[in-house]
Amino acid sequence: MNTDWWSVGTVTIGITVFAIAQGLTYPLISLLLAARDVSDTTIGLNAAAFMLGLGVSVLVVPRLTRHLRAGQVIVAGLLGAAMSLGGFAATDNLIAWFMLRFALGFCVNAIYVFGEAWLNAATADAVRGRVSGVYSAGMAVGFVIGPLAIPLFGIESELAFAACAVLVSCVAFGLAMMSRRAKVEPEKPQLSDLPRFARAAPMLVFLVVAFGFIDASVLSLSPVHLTEVGATAALAATFLAVMHLGMIVAQPILGVVLDRVDRWYVATGCLAATGLVFLSLTFVSIDSPSLWGLGALGGAAFLGIYTSALAILGQDHKGPALTAGAATFSLAYAIGGVIGPIVTGALVSSFPGTTFIPVAIISLIGAVIVLRRRR
Prior knowledge:
With 375 residues, the chain is mainly α. The chain contains 13 helices and no strands. The protein has one domain: MFS general substrate transporter like domains (Growth Hormone, Chain: A), CATH 1.20.1250. Helix 1 packs parallel to helix 3, helix 5 packs antiparallel against helix 11 and helix 10 packs antiparallel against helix 11.
């Protein structure tokens, strides 16, 4: 088959914009809540509300959108995300922020439920690793742009939320036009297929659970960790931007590797590298130049877990199984993303300075489990 580049372009631009919203809200909300003396546990619970929205979306969105095309679902998700971001700009009530965080997760999941099945269905296997790498790089670009809005707008006002809402709305209009030229349409996910896929590919599901745990923990709580040890909010946001720059550079290269090397070995290497990097970051001072290098390496490694999983999904599964896999990925990511910030936030509340320890543990143990199960 030939690759449908209009479909690939629509999904990649969509994930980039969703990542801008996600990349902004993770550090900004954490920093704003910390400035109000909200506990690390509550900050972790608020981040978990986003992931809960992702999980509920997996169960509800397929039924709500069974008569819509994938492109229409993604555009609707973008518009819903823009409204949620506008809500953050309009109120500073903590309970409302929990509900808005849930709504944002619910809307963002449109790209995960439909976009990734669409991407794999539209891609020829010969270039699957490279397309997955470009998709992940687009995600990383969004995660760079999001945190950079914090030094630009500051944390003293809600302008960053409002500006992001305007951007997301404008891109939704553009994607509505692009998606009309796409030739490939993925099959609609069926909820009954999710447990069947999880039983058939438990290690693949584990990869995404681990990625969700790491992603949510690092993006939500590393800014708080850095400010608690003396960094400014701008430096903490810049650290996240450097981490995502590492992702941008590494993912297309990793995509080439995924097309030439056993993809499970690549995934195992990314898990091991993630564990070693974040274990090292636990002991690095904010004044050390190695903070930036390790941040870039850590970002490249942990996003590589997901890039590998996405390539393996398209390699091993087709048709209904592919669609079920993409939906299961969303649920697995949400499960990891709920557990990660809650566990990490609770640990940090009791033992300050341990933000990266849970990430290191799940990554290193995960590398051993995947390697042993695949032999």
